[in-house]
Amino acid sequence: MSRLAIALDIGTSGIRGQAIDLSSGEILSTAITTRHPLPGANVMDHLHFALELGVETANNILIQAINRVIGALRVKKADVQRLGVCGNPIQLSLFQGIEVRDLAYAGARKLKLLGIVPPSRKAAIIPAKAILGLNLPKDCDVVIPPAVRHEVGADAMAMMIQTGVLEREETAMATDFGTNAEVALFHDGAIFTGSTAAGPALEGQQITCGMLAVPGAVSDLEPAEDYHRLVVLDREMFPVPGSVVDLREKRSMGEADGTRPIGITGTGVIALISQAMEAGLIALPRINTPDGRLHLGRDIFLTEGDLREAGKAIGAVRAGHITLCCEAGITPADIRIAYMSGASGTYVDAIKAQKLGMIPPCLERVYQVGNTSLAMAGDLACKPKTLNMMADLGDRLKKSHCMFAASKIFQKIFILELSHWNEGMPMTQYRRFMNKYGLPNLPQVSGRPEVIRTVKRDINDLGKMGLTIITDIGRKIGLQVEGCDSCKQCVRECPEKAISMKADTDPITLILDESLCNGVACRRCERVCPEKVFQLDRFFRHASAGHDARPGTSPCRYSE
Questions:
Q1: Are 202 and 266 a contacting pair, CB within 8 Å?
Q2: CA gap 554, 113 in Å, rounded
Q3: Quick one: which H or E segment has residue 159?
Q4: Distance between CA 201 and CA 285 in Å, rounded?
Q5: β-sheet bridge partners, residue 453
Q6: For residue 244, how many C-alpha atoms fall within 13 Å in the half-sphere facing its CB?
Q7: pTM metric for this prediction
Q8: Average pLDDT of the residues in 219-243
Q9: How far apart are alpha carbons 149 and 89 in whole angstroms?
Q10: Which residues contact 392 (CB under 8 A, 6 or more apart)?
Q11: How many whole angstroms from its chain centre is CA 322?
Q12: Among candidate residues 27, 139, 13, the one with its CA nearest the CA of residue 88
């Protein structure tokens, strides 16, 4: 009988899994989703959903999606002896189905007042039967890493361990770029950590033509004489040259044999903004083209709203970097080494990212290291003793962790970032305010760092059976709504096109795609309903009761 393990990265924007042969350590297959199954665009939306609808509902949705990822790995589940998981504290808590209210409120007094008893989030190995509904053998070991604080957990530790920065004596900044950007500053033997809610733009979400880093996504942009050439992810997730485009117009100047672009991922957004600034097509906060859009062919474009979303994400990352410098008593100019992880940290052009402020300005070297969270899950699955290392590191990090939400320094810097990106505040004025606040000087970018790509793609080894992409991870919930007059205002108002209507039933049937829905913090569908009969919560409660909630069509599959 084969001895197998599964590595699972439960990210804020999606789930990534790999099947591994425990005897040889060989990766057999990889499966990823293009979205997170829970409604919402970020981890706070997922937490908000769990608070309103209950942890059990959120856990049920997440476990159903994880079971689909495990099934898409195409191995015998009976042979799986170990599952290693990695993710932030909220995602891992929802996976386990444990209390999350302590993650929503800060302060022991508040928790006591609400009668909340925080659960243990220490490193643990539990049987699969303890995770209700998980489709693995009951005696399969589930290896769960520890959390550090509310917003810093196993994914942040994975970034530190997998980059190898802990073994070097250097002043360095490591960042796992994503919806939640985990940041760590290493200086004089100390580690300063924080996590900033950068938002989904860095992963291509909440961008009009945005998408995650999957085949067909524009991941970069390069000058091509008077125009620009797209760089697109191919079927094996390698970046390849695409067509030449005129950013001012809806046309391609010349086609390439590479993968046809179908959307733009977060790294492509960064490259597009950088190149458009150099070409004089952006003068913050405006896009200076005839229609106020930047075009990547006929059907892919970036709006001024997208520019603001990306600016908020970039600004949150830079604010986090400067805040940790203040905590360590250094300036951004003192940082000479940077590590970039995650899909965004892998595919982004580091030089373009530096020009926009995503990494420190005076670097000598930049390492781009891939998906460290999935790699960490693989280590946990194959070498459970890795838990001890993570537990020791977690204890060390608690001593110098900075909660950005409570940091006045972070708040001041982030306001300056919003003023720069959303209102066009010049960087000269930005720096004057930094000086006025007594904050460290932010120098201009100097020199050109050596860029070292340790991997060629986000997930370096897809396995001999290749990659499966699940594009329809969300449940489709059908609900007959009494009093609906089929005006379709809810359908038109939904910013993510998550609602459709089946008008040939009585009462009218509305269908909600959970993974596309922006969650309970949005509710634009409710507010626009003239008859006030659209109630978003009813869809989720209806599905939780086991009615008419179906996954979509089959996943698409690519092999190397």
A1: yes
A2: 47
A3: helix 154-163
A4: 16
A5: 368
A6: 7
A7: 0.87
A8: 92
A9: 8
A10: none
A11: 22
A12: 13
Task: Give the fold, CATH level 3, of 4-152+463-470.
Answer: Nucleotidyltransferase; domain 5 (3.30.420)
pLDDT in tens, 491-501: 999 988 999 99
Q: Which residues of 220-231 are buried (b: 16+ CB within 10 A; e: fewer)?
A: bbeeeeebbbbb
Q: Determine the Cα–Cα distance for residues 381 and 154; give it in Å rounded to an integer.
A: 14
Q: Tokens 């620009």 sit at which residue?
A: 228
Q: Residue 92 carries which DSSP code?
A: H
Look at residue 556 in the predicted model and tell me its pLDDT.
44
Report the alpha-carbon distance of residue 51 to residue 519 in Å, rounded.
12
Q: Answer yes or no: same fold for 4-152+463-470 and 476-558.
A: no
Task: Using the CB atoms, write b or e for 81-104: b if 16+ within 10 Å.
Answer: bbbbbbbbbbbbbbbbbeebbbbb
In the chain, what are the domain boundaries?
4-152+463-470, 155-195+308-375+386-453, 209-302, 476-558
Question: Which residue type does 375 have?
Answer: A
How does pLDDT run across 26-79, given as a tens digit for each residue? 999 999 998 899 998 788 889 999 999 999 999 999 999 999 999 999 999 999
The partner residues of 221 in beta bridges, in order of sequence, read 230
Residue 476 confidence (pLDDT) above 50? yes
> Cα(97)–Cα(91) distance, rounded to whole angstroms?
10
Please, are residues 175 and 181 in contact by the beta-carbon 8 Å criterion?
yes
Q: Which helix (H) or strand (E) holds 353?
A: helix 350-356
Angle at Cα 238 formed by Cα 233 and Cα 243, nearest 5°? Answer: 45
Reduce the DSSP state of residue 461 to 3 states and report it: coil
What is the 3-state secondary structure of 380-448? HHHCCCHHHHHHHHHHHHHHHECCHHHCHHHHHHHHHHHHHHHHCCCHHHHHHHHHHCCCCCCCCCCCC
Let me know: does 496 contact 516? Beta carbons within 8 Å: yes
Cβ neighbours of residue 120 closer than 8 Å, sequence gap 6 or more: none
Are 158 and 166 contacting, i.e. CB atoms less than 8 angstroms apart?
A: no
The CATH topology of domain 476-558 is Alpha-Beta Plaits (3.30.70)
Contact 302, 313 (CB under 8 A): no
Closest CA to 313 of 266, 345, 351: 266
- Report residue 143's pLDDT band, with 50, 70 and 90 as the boundaries: very high
Residue by residue, what is the 3-state secondary structure of 122-152?
A: CCEEEEHHHCCCCCCCCCCEEEECCCCCCCC
